[in-house]
Amino acid sequence: MIQLIDIHTHCYHEERLNSILSHSALDTEIPDDVRYISLSIHPWYLTQDNISLQLQYIKNAISIDKRVVAIGECGIDKVCDTPLGLQMEAFEEAAMLARDNNLPLIIHSVKSSNEIIQLRKKIGEDSIWIMHGFRGKKELALEYIRHNINLSFCEKYNTEALVALPLNKIFLETDESKLSIDEIAAKIASDYGVSVEKLKKEVAGNISRCFPFIGL
Ligand SMILES: [Zn+2]
Question: Of the residues 39, 43, 62, 124, which has the maximum number of CB atoms within 10 A of its CB?
């Protein structure tokens, strides 16, 4: 049985040892038994006053904490009150840090696919980007794939978009869901029309290809 890595969660429990906890400088301290961390600079909590503190925290943590395996979530959210220019600045900085440190970037996007793709072209399309909690339509999913952007699925998603994707572009996460990663895998396998074992094998392969610091 393959034990899948949950690439994005905010709800850390001991039984979720195989999760990547999304953590920012603004959160409470990381519990000692957390195995993997992604360093977040979330658009919702970003202000002119805390942007440099958060970026400095990320730079520092990358160099001292071996549990860091990704950057994010970070990104652009047009429905929140944070000024767009500030969000773009933080996202671009985070994307450069990810690229320069060979870390995958886990992205939060709300109504901002144009900005994300623009920045993708600017930063370069070879680094690993993963849209987290993807719920968009098939057309958008395929547009992201054209720019070599991967998609991560949680409990809720557009099935037509899911089945349009090749398995080598798919990741799974629990985010804030109460479902376990195995329950999410079972739901997605059934909607995709493959066995759970086949799905897990593919996703585990994607993780070992895209997360160079997992398992070290
Ligand atoms: Zn999240």
Answer: 39
Longest CA–CA separation in the chain, Å: 49
Mean pLDDT of the chain: 95
Domain carrying residue 145:
6-210
CA of 106 from ligand 1 middle (Å) equals: 9
Residue 1 in domain:
no
Residue 58 maps to a domain: yes
What's the 77 CA to ligand 1 centre distance in angstroms?
12
Helix 113-123 and helix 84-100: axis angle, to 10°? 40
Query: Are 21 and 34 a contacting pair, CB within 8 Å?
Result: yes
Total number of domains in the chain: 1
177 CA distance to ligand 1 centroid (A)?
10
Q: Give the residue among 76, 139, 62, 127 at the shortest CA–CA distance from 99.
A: 127
Q: Measured between alpha carbons, how far apart are the two ends of the chain, in Å?
A: 21
Q: What are the backbone dihedrals phi and psi of residue 213, each rounded to the nearest 5 degrees, phi first?
A: -100, 5
| Least confident among 16-30, 131-145, 157-171, 172-186 | 16-30
**pLDDT reading at 186 higher than 90:** yes
